[in-house]
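It is worth pausing here to work through a concrete case rather than discussing structure prediction in the abstract. The textbook approach is simple: state the sequence, then state the predicted structure, then interpret. We follow exactly that order.
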Amino acid sequence: MERTLNLSAVVAEYLLNCQIDGKARGTLKIYENVTRLFLDYLGEDPEITPTRIRGFLLWLSETRGQNPTTVNINCRALRTFVRWQAREGYLPDDPMRGIKTPKVPSKFPNVLSDDELRLMLAVAKRSPRDNAILLLLLDCGVRAAEFCGLSLDDVCLATRTASVLGKGGRERTVFFSVVTARALAKWLSVRPEVPFDNPLFTSAKRKERLTPHGLLEVVQRLARQAGVQKRVGCHTVRHSFATAYVRAGGDAHTLQHLLGHSTLVMATRYVDLVGRDLAEAHQRYSPVMRLERGK
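Step two, the predicted structure:
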């Protein structure tokens, strides 16, 4: 039987249900944002139909100026909300059943070149903390929240492994090199004590756990001081790790585990994009093509 309730109250119940289910903080924020935008779009008429949903997605793009990637994310978040309403009896059926998620154009992710990484590492070496941060971030390719969640007990220098708590509470093991292990040992020898906590990395000025925002500031500062011109963030380093892994011959299944993805989709995308990148490079630098162009 279909239930009736004020849509704002339905949204509040949905978000509370997601929180109880243990959804990650970032996921909750996306769900909260898209439901708020959807309520704004619907206005005083709360009826949810396929036509209005399509209009909402177009509104996000043309009126709100969202790029295809953001519209894609919001569409998937809205689909989760609408399906929940149908299961709970607030809707007679799922009005998004026939609506396709907008495609995201395939483009190569923003990555750092080897030269840019060398410049950043040269700058980072001035500080044991910065050096250990950049090396571990580049060696493991973890997300910013995962990185900042690392505690002393999560890292083993002897086996060169770290236990990371990823999205959905999924735990995985990542690995780092002997170079990174040495940098971590040097950092731990000067790391300040933190009362009531044992974070692997602390903030620069306070004796407290490094936050994702603080980590972003470190990465951006190193890039700026190294003279890197492109926009750099924590995810840029993650993309750089994944791309370098594939170029070195790594397979998609292992990359999926290292990155903490629940499916092969993203890992396969890295493989496809790197393959396309190498093919384009071959066309540019092939000796046969160069000779042909010189005719």
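Step three, interpretation. The beta strands are 155-156, 161-165, 171-175. The mean pLDDT is 85.
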